[in-house]
Amino acid sequence: MNKNWLTATASDLGRGIEAGEIDPVALTQTYLDAIDSHQFSDRIYTKVTHDRAMSEAKAAATRATSHTRQSLLDGVPISWKDLFDTAGTKTEAGSALLKNRTPTDDALVLQNATNAGLVCLGKTHMSELAFSGLGLNPVTQTPPNVNDYDAIPGGSSSGAAASVGFNLAAAGIGSDTGGSVRIPSAWNDLVGLKTTSGDISLQGVVPLCARFDTVGPLTRSVEDAAHLYAILKNAPVCDLSPIDLSGRKIAIHRNIAFDHIEIKPENAFYAVVEKLKSHGAIVTSTSFEGVEQAMELAGCLFTFEAYAQWGDVIEDNPDLMYQEILHRFRQGKNFSKQQYDDGWTKLLELRRSFDAQASEFKLLLAPTAPIMPPNLHRLETDSDYFVRSNLLALRNTRIGNLMGLCALTLPTNTPSCGVMLMGRPFQEHTLLQLGKSIEAII
């Protein structure tokens, strides 16, 4: 067994299996041993699926020997956020309201991953019902932040990020409704892909806001994200050939994204911008009309749908919820169905306008989060700090959700600071190809 496997990219592990240098069984056992002996294991994983993992690893080993591997990542062990249905394994979405909920079937994306040969290590902790960008969950567990044990990891895919950041999975699968893949990826120095709403199936995924919910990977490289994106979608892998950035028009998204920004994420962002310029990219600061209006609609659109989805369940047992999350859900009662419908009509108009304004640019750039990971103890004891931190954490990422974009966060050379690349709807292949080239520059 080789402990270097624990820090390798999923793609490199796949190539090692293909070359006969890595045994999927030994690889999976290495990960399981690392999980079982780790000081934060219980704070990261809700359930480690030892038997399933070893069974899938043995099948992968057989395919490797017979040269019938199903994908580059056949035999690679990954984790799954605890809102993806897993047959025979509790799937509780970080909430006591769903205690002992045990699906009979895998979510479709998990089925696709299994068919591609990926090994399921288990389920990871998350924000309660996925309704927070912080990752704090006093009801179940709050995973640690890889850079600061006194800070929160980001959410809602908190355990997914921690599983990769602490070398307890080669990649993690999460979901993103307002930033829930990108925030924990940025704060744990990972790559995180937010896919376009409707691009990847939500069948068997515990919902929050179905019109915003998306599925995406948290990884160590853009290449890993591209392979996992293809697998989750059951589609071919996109071309990742290098792209010359010279002459490419890139916009810094000025609206809102730099308000109240802290010095570290701001400096990290502009350091990346300078590198892009040095490689010939044409980077301009641009404000887009309608973004502020879209942000004003967000409170209604997110909370109304979330409460419509969960309100009855919540009100049957409100004492089971963390009060800050309960309060956030209940804000949905302040809006009517007519306001919600009118809000969506307006948002779709704003999206069309935004798309026209952004059409000349290959990418839009912004800091992934304007703040550093907040302090865990203060979040638990200071309600105002919790509310402000949650809103700021999700502010920049929410631009992509509201405008219907795909987005990719990349780590910078400053810990817990990410740079977010936003692409046009359903242009994940272009986003990933550009992201691969920018990753090499950073």
From TrEMBL:
PROSITE patterns: AMIDASES (PS00571). SUPFAM superfamilies: Amidase signature (AS) enzymes (SSF75304). Transmembrane segments: none annotated. Residues 27-432 form the Amidase domain. GO terms for molecular function: catalytic activity. Gene3D superfamilies: Amidase signature (AS) domain. Pfam families: Amidase. PANTHER family: AMIDASE AMID-RELATED (PTHR11895:SF176), TRANSAMIDASE (PTHR11895). This is Amidase. It comes from Paramylibacter kogurei.
